[in-house]
Automatic annotation (TrEMBL):
Highest taxon in the source lineage: Bacteria
Protein name: Uncharacterized protein
Amino acid sequence: MEHDDIRQLVLTPLADRAWRLCDRDVARNEVASVIAYVELLDSGAYEAVWVAVGLGSARFPTLEGLFRAAVEKLDQSRSLGALKPAPIPHRPPAHA
């Protein structure tokens, strides 16, 4: 991982202990620019809720660990490319 990869990420404050983790390589007005929502917990750990690079959440003892994980998730999502959504099977309406 190169340091340039980490420099493309920025934390945008939302509240005293909450931020958006954004990708500078994506236009600010695009939804895909928000990678995760980050919160500083009382324990001192950072919790990230991934939004643009997968689902779920993870906790990190340092911001550096959070940024490294975000870069890895970005790399993974780019290598997968766009995925076609799974079709929803038809279900007949319920009868009253």
